[in-house]
Write a structure and sequence with these properties.
179 residues, alpha+beta, Fructose-1,6-Bisphosphatase, Chain A, domain 1, 7-stranded mixed beta sheet
Length: 179
């Protein structure tokens, strides 16, 4: 993909939007136990914090790119036209952790254009880490370029995983992969 400057500008928007999302989440994090929680489905929750974060993110994106679309995890669906860039947002990535006071959550934002993700940011606010990437431009953590490991075998690799908690009936299958 040729980079005509859009992808870099979109990374900067994603950074600002992620920080705005955290600014909206922070007061809820500080009073987690009083948080109002609704179930979208089995083990699938939405909170007032998710909604506040998404509104803050949408405000940044629409102010900087009024012609772009926003597809958020929380709220209304949009009709994708295939031509305009689409911001794909998880305003509180790790809602279950958040509502249980587990400090492993973030704000995730990606920009999809021409059939692929071209820019994005993930903010881990409690660790102070902002991960950014753009197609063809590399990935960074707090501005420092990231690199993949040179290890090419599982014997020497570190594997991190999360089990899909919504499919608890498959837990034995998931665990079997590690036995």
């Amino acid at each position: 993909m040729r980079d005509d400057g859009n992808a870099q500008a979109w990374v900067r928007t994603a950074e600002r939007a992620a920080r705005a999302g955290w600014d909206a989440l922070r007061p809820y994090w500080e009073r987690t136990l009083a948080l109002e929680v609704s179930a979208k489905g089995t083990h699938d929750f939405v909170t007032e914090a998710d909604l506040a974060s998404q509104r803050a993110i949408a405000a940044v994106v629409s102010a900087e790119h009024p012609d772009h679309l926003l597809l958020g995890e929380e709220g209304e669906q949009v009709r994708l036209d295939g031509e305009r860039p689409v911001w794909i947002v998880d305003p509180l990535d790790g809602t279950t952790n958040f509502i249980h006071g587990n400090p492993v959550f973030g704000v995730s934002i990606g920009c999809w254009h021409d059939g692929r993700v071209v820019a994005g940011a993930v903010l881990d606010p409690l660790r102070g880490e902002l991960f950014t990437a753009r197609r063809g431009g590399g990935a960074f953590c707090n501005g420092r370029r990231l690199a993949v490991s040179s290890r090419d075998g599982l014997d020497d690799a570190l594997i991190g995983t999360g089990f899909p908690f919504r499919r608890i009936e498959r837990l034995e299958q998931y665990l079997g992969a590690f036995r």
